[in-house]
Amino acid sequence: MRVLLLDDDPFQLAMLEDMLEDLGDFTVFTANAAQAALAMLQTSPPDLMVCDLSMPDMDGIEFLRHVAEEGYDGTVVLLSGMESGVLKAAERLAMAQGLTILGACAKPVSAVELGDLVSLARMHRRPRRTA
């Protein structure tokens, strides 16, 4: 399964990548800026995207709007250090744009919670299109 991790904090990216390594065999891509993640979506769309909502170059809501406009059909997990009300509002907005949101988690996400969300992503996984 292909996973894209988006967070501007290098420590968070490394922690998430380590957790995924412990959970199974994944092809993991990381981005520390929304623009870089959008470029990756064009070339290598992931099955699961784990996305921080608070980034310096583009906030998570704007990023998710772009992702929806691009027709992303994978699953998304939202992460944030913001209060739970903001996280839930972002989840509702992203779902209203047609994205499949598996969860909205407070940082730091636990390994158990991430494992449960990865299991959900596996169930939602769509077969890859071949050219």
Automatic annotation (TrEMBL):
The record's InterPro entries line, in alphabetical order, gives: Bact_response_regulator (IPR050595), CheY-like_superfamily (IPR011006), Sig_transdc_resp-reg_receiver (IPR001789)
Q: What Gene3D superfamilies does the record tag this protein with?
A: 3.40.50.2300
Modification type 4-aspartylphosphate: residues: 52
Task: Recite the UniProt keywords alphabetically.
Answer: Phosphoprotein
A GO BP term here is:
phosphorelay signal transduction system
Zinc among the record's keywords? no
One Pfam family from the record: Response_reg
Residue ranges constituting the Response regulatory domain according to the UniProt record: 2-122
Per its record, how is this protein called by name? Response regulator
- Cite the source lineage: Bacteria, Pseudomonadati, Pseudomonadota, Betaproteobacteria, Burkholderiales
